[in-house]
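INFO  loader      accepted 1 record
INFO  loader      residues=166
INFO  predictor   begin
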Amino acid sequence: MKLVLCAFMLLTLAACGFTPMYGSGGAGTSGLSATAGLDKIEIDLIPDETGVYLRNILIDQFYRDGYPVDPRYRLRVAAINQKVQDLDVTTDSESTRRQIILTTTLNLVDIGTGENVLSRPVKAITSYNVLGSQFTTRVSENDAREAALEDLARQIETQIALYLKR
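INFO  predictor   done
INFO  writer      dumping tokens
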């Protein structure tokens, strides 16, 4: 009975048009993965130091074979807003853990028409320990910020890949 149920579920899944996002597709698909179109996107400058770091991550993810010669889309990422919150406060009113929240908005513009084809807010949250040493706390904070920026880059890549795969 379980075998019949599993076979039925697999046939139902195949009939719904499911295709793997990062796969090469199957019968009846274009044969291209969703990441194939990322090399046709020009990435605009992003303000501030965190924006430069995010843009460099996106360049590494999008341009596997060099910069686009004839891009079809332009990616615009708004300035990154950062908010730091104390999470764990002791009875002496000292924080032992902090949280970094990064938010921004991505806009994908069709260069040919000038139309904004995709607009999404993205948000990443990470935390770090506040230690006795200012140096180690600063290093932990920078590591946490970089991890949040890498998360933003993954979210942006996923949103664009889903748009291109549609």
